[in-house]
Amino acid sequence: MELQSDFDIKEACGVFGIFSPKEEDVASSIYYGLCSLQHRGQESCGIAVCDTKGPKGNMNAHKGMGLVSEVFKEEILENLHGNLGIGHVRYSTTGAATLSNAQPLVLNYIKGTLALAHNGNLVNTQDLRCELEKTGAIFHTTTDSEVIAYCIARERVNTHNVEEAILHTAKKIRGAYGLVIASPRKLIGVRDPLGLKPLCLGRRDTSYIIASESCALSAIGAEFIRDIRPGEIITITADGITSNCQLCQETHAHCIFEYIYFARLDSTLDGINIYDARIRAGAALAAAYPEDADLVTGVPDSGIPAAKGYSEASGIPFALAFYKNSYVGRTFIKPTQKERELSVRLKLNVLEPVVRGKRIILVDDSIVRGTTIANLIRMLKNAGAKSVHVRVSSPPFLYPCYFGTDIPSNKQLIASSHTADEICAMIGADSLGYMNTQNLQSMAGNLPLCKACFDSHYPMDITGHTADNKQ
Question: Could you give the residue numbers annotated as active site?
Fold first, then answer.
């Protein structure tokens, strides 16, 4: 991912839930789980907990804008008591970047309390929202997550239990979702039938955990049990685990960008190790776009594994060409393009002895607008690089995503209006090679993928849903 472009691609969020029947306070475990999922969202975060032995309706929540370590201080965690809880980190794809849209959402309704955290994006939000508003619903956020929560609450009035209400709701909603839901006595995980969004199950002693990625399990010393199946609703109570697979289907479409960029290197999603997937991507690039060069390097951090794969497959030595300053703040908040460009220099600096006089292959996982990669090429050449050949481990972005990947409009996507040769000239590269769409499958083995942002083959009907719905 090109660093700090003014049009970075953003993923919706990460979710985490834990139920500890030994009545341990779980807030600190949720905190560490969310810290490990911070890469999935840096805008806001929240934790909601309850005591399953206490009175129903004792849900206690805290949310805030910023990173997990900024929002949750020790004294706040110490006041979040409960052995059941869920957490969320967010970067908005639907709904404005405001505290009111931070999650988990907590509802108090006629049947009690409900807390919900959502990763993904629905494609029929507007229809559902209008239907609810006509029957008196008053919305306090602009997110599709609140629509899901209200649907569950409405269904619960006429069902025997919350699982049945969730099943009825899941039959109504369309799109991508990984949900963790806390009712006063239950932790529930729900994954969309196509498997667009990841969700997994883990265990630590007698506690069970549901999380967006397996790295969150490792962070709290839990073992990975399995991925939650696409379409599965899993319920965890003091009596154990139950599974409902009524919505499971044979057709799946896992988001390719989890493997290209979103997921953390140490995660495994649906049987595919992320590090290995990105190594394979680099190897595919080396086969498709060979180049006579002296060294291969990657754009920190996301381009480095693919660069390593390119190096191994080509036999060209791998080296780090940039020093990354990890102590610089989040530069995407800079208000002007000039300040953004300065932020790149503050965050990355070229290691001149490494690149001087060398022909360099520079690997990144995507080019969105092209501004940042152009700056990096200029920095390398100013440091004495003879040539810079860019290789990209994803195809050109050409189409919008409706499932939770906040890809800019076509006007802002450089590849939508320029050929590869034109882009190569614009960014100042000596050559440019994108991953071929047909080679994407090499990253994820036989896993069925959603590649619609590259080839426009959407895995479901998106009629009536436009990118303009995203705020």
Answer: 13
